[in-house]
Amino acid sequence: MNWWRRLWNRKKMDQQLDKELRFHLEEQTADLIAQGLSPEKARREAQIAFGGPTRIFEECRDTRGTRWLEDLVQDLRYAFHTLRQRPGFAVVSILTLTLGIGSTTAIFSAVNPILFQSLPYPDAHRIMMLWEMRSDGRPQQPAFATYFGEAEHTQTFDAIAALKPWQPTMTGPDQPERLEGQSVTAAYFHVLGIAPLLGRDFLPSEDTPKAPKVTILSNGLWRRRFGGDFGIVGRQIKLDDNAYTVIGVMPPGFENVLAPAAELWSPLQYDMTQGRAWGHHLRMIGKLRPGVSQEQGKRELDVTMHSLGQLYAVGYQTSGGPPRGMIVKPLQEDLTEGVRPALFAIMAAVSLVLLIACVNVTNVLLARSAQRRGEFAMRAALGAARQRLVRQLLSESLLIASISAVLGLLAARFGIRILIVLSPSELPRVSAISMDIATFTFAVGLTFLVGLLVGLVPALQASRNALYTGIHENSYRASSGHHRTRRTLVVTEVALALVLLVNAGLLLRSFQRLFAVAPGFDATNLLTMQVQTSGRRFNDNKATLHFFSQALDAVRQVPGVMQAGFTSQLPLSGDFEVYGGKLETGQTTAVKEFGALRYAVSPGYCETMKIPLLRGRFFDDRDTAGAPPVALVGDSFVRHEFAGQDPLGKRIQFGPGEDSYTIVGVIGDVKQTSLALSQLDAVYIPTAQWHWADGVLSLVVRSRRNPTALVGPIRKAIWSVDKDQPIVRVATMNSLLAASEAERHFALVIFEALAMAALALAAVGIYGVLAGSVTERIREIGVRSALGASRSNILALVLRQGMTLAVVGVLIGAVGAMLTSQTLVSLLFGVSRLDPVTYLGVIVLLMAVSAFACWAPAWRAARVDPSITLRAE
Amino acid sequence: MAAKSDLPQGTLDLLILKIVALGPIHGYAIAQRLQQVSQDVVQVPQGSLYPALHRLENRGLLAADWKETDTGREAKFYRLTRKGRGQLETEAKSWQRLTESVALILRLSEGSGE
User: Fold this and answer.
1) From B26, B46, B51, residue closest to A60, measured CB to CB
2) CA A547, CA A530: separation in Å to the nearest integer?
3) A343-377, pLDDT tens digit by residue?
4) Whether the predicted model's global pTM rises above the 0.95 cut
């Protein structure tokens, strides 16, 4: 009979066992009677020879191996019964643990796919992100020349691919639609290891400049725009006025981690003869051959890079000089690098809340087991083994944890949704965040851990007391160990809460500091949007420039618009473009090189942004395509490159080509990537005088009032010039400002919520312990007041007792906070991790909350009537 | 009462297997047989036979059926399974080896150990 059948048939087996043992005894008795004994004596003899029947019965049952489960069921039933007897206790414990388990599970489900799961590609650990290494050791985006050379020569990589964003407009029978896509080299999907579901992958021959235009669709786009038509492969679709042949459709589960929003792909179709071969604007990935290490791959790429640098010295010179080498990083690491510190900090914070919740419930269980001391003593006296008592109490705590886990999982589902809404846009793999098997397993494991954690201390204590003290009620000696445990728990709780509060406080202070940083322009009532040119006629520079200047004129006519201008790079929008240049020093021999942010801007841009003019003049209508080329430079550029000299009238070469620009003005510095990052040098050129006409510009509009009301009229104004031009990325400058700090904000919101929870739990915990200890010491307090202690004496006694615990907890917590704030350093800004203001503020707050939690029990103690308590004995 | 001897670990199982191997038999009869054959040297409290029987049954070495005895009463008769027979053989062999080597050691004369 197997284990399951033994479990299932246990009733019948018990009956049979009973019958079997009885048969033995009766046979034996009969034999003894046959030997001449009296029936009475025979029965006794048989029983003596047999041994204790109950014990043997139990031993036989134990051999089935189902005993533990039967006991467990019994324990759980009993636990359930005792919980129902004290619903208040049960509800408090369950809610506390629900909060702990729910929040921990929600955070885990968000963090797991990002930090721990490997990317959803075969052999994902072999996929590497490849960056060029600048001469100062920092990474930079690879140029096409780098990709081309590395991909051609590599022996250590299976394949290398380059990619860049591509936003074609699809026209056809339906409304024109701007799509998110990627231009990729032919091996892109090969590197990821995912093949199209329908049709085929790109061929290397399709990735050349004159090749016919082809595209692969995402499964979502195929369903959305083409109704999941299986005949799509081979058909042509119109993108930016060009006919593209659809050659494939990706599978539904394909997660494109490099550009999650991308819905279609086409070959990059660059070659080395184009000027753009030298711009650092691509991204590069590669898949290592099996068995090749990251270091081996890097060494080979470095060697190739070195020879490429020599071979194409002239070309690289137009974009800041040849790279020093390559940086090879696992794709997963590269994608998660930015959010890693925040996520680890959040994980740590939520674990703290869980710990505090556990400490609270442990406290409650301890208090309860103190009340049940009599019951345990009775059971121990009746022969229950200590092990059995421990198990009984553990099954109670496990039951509480399990109920909390079910509620917590439900709460986590909502929590996850909130997390996704709150998550900063740079959080990778948001689509993979869900309640999956991993989350579920985690929650189950966590529940067991929590159940054991909160149950073990009270269980051990209760069972020990049961054995030592017997049924003596109110034995002071026995309860002193018990009090010590509870005091330790309160101290722990205060310390943990302090750690969390200090870290949350540091984040809050950083955030305040950060938004006190001047971005370099005035963000109020500033509307931004990106205007793109689409269509073949814009292959002509003049047409592009003409369109933008007409559009700008139209926008300026819109009522409510005060000022407007165009820029190639919008601050804090994620735009980032750096070009190399040379300073003309006058002496032909000495040429100073530099790298700087390039802004191609229309006249009126700086005025609209309210970027201050420090010297010289802004651009104006004189600075047309034919006029002498001019440039504005940022303040930090002047400080770095001119060191006290007057920059006005000096000439610089900038970007590809030999044109030199005369500096006509110096303007204030603008934060381009983040408020927290220090300033990069900047050079501004009129759009009309740059080496080519940018096809994508951002419009900035200063309005009188709320700028969002102007979105419609401005769109209409632009479309009155040309109705086919897409307008995207509409946002107020204030929202861009907020979004640029979204990661910090995300961490801050979560930390604040967790810190509030921790504070509340700590207050409840301190209150609970003191209230419990007052109840237990009610007789002692009665004696004291009978002996002449005044109310204020007793009030002071209980308060002192509670506050001593709080102070000890605060001291330990302060040390803990100093140690743990190390993990937050990368998220802090303008605040030391040992910032005394934060520490002091949090300590005062926590002490105030503790005092409040102490007050109620102390006040109650002071009201104890000695005559009643003494009579109760 | 005859001198009792404590059974070495696992020996009771071996003895039960051997007795059951002779033919289907119920618990009481096994107890009787054990006592008779060993001439009261091996004395097990009769009750402790049953946990051993059940353990062997749960391990699949024994199987049991309820049958009528000669006296017409229902009793649980144990028999050896194929697995039990294999177990008996290996255990008997290792028991043999053990006793032989113990006997060898005991035969060493006092002086020969030098």
Assistant:
1) B51
2) 14
3) 888 888 898 889 889 988 888 888 777 777 777 77
4) no
